[in-house]
Amino acid sequence: QVQLVESGGELVQVGASLRLSCAASERISEHALAWWRQAPGKGLEWVSGITTTGRTSTADSVKGRFTISRDNAKNTLYLEMDNLKPEDTAVYYCAIWDGNTSPRGPGTQVTVSS
């Protein structure tokens, strides 16, 4: 099974931008992929997904601020996050987006300070 490792999270100020990466252990071109996040004390929240053909879908809570993309040649998924808010503070995870697979990677911590 594809192993996915997230990176790019850090402590930033309100309004800052970050780009998260999700590196795969093997070819990702045949998989739809997505980002999830889990804020302190809350459950897992789906953030954004991208199909094998590049079609994207994004949660209303981040629409207009977050952009998902993929680079199949590099076997990497990205999440560009702009105009970050304190409520975006969470551990961010990536996983195969098939309705059955839950994130298994270590995640990457994003903290937005006001």
Verbal overview:
The protein is mainly β and 114 residues long. Strands 2-10-9-4-5-6 form a six-stranded mixed sheet, with no helix packed on it. Strands 1-3-8-7 form a four-stranded antiparallel sheet, with no helix packed on it. The protein is globular. The mean pLDDT is 96.
Q: What separation lies between the terminal Cα atoms?
A: 39 Å
State the low-pLDDT regions, or none.
Answer: none
| Overall morphology | globular
Assign a percent range to the helix content.
under 10%
Number of strands: 10
| Elements, N to C (H/E) | EEEEEEEEEE
Spatial strand sequence of the major β-sheet = 2-10-9-4-5-6
Average of per-residue pLDDT values: 96
Number of helices: 0
Main pleated sheet: 6 strands, mixed
- How big is the Rg? 13 Å
Query: Hey, roughly how much beta strand do the residues contain?
Result: over 45%
SS class: mainly beta
Record keyword descriptors for this entry.
single chain, 114 residues, mainly beta, 6-stranded mixed β-sheet, 10 strands, globular
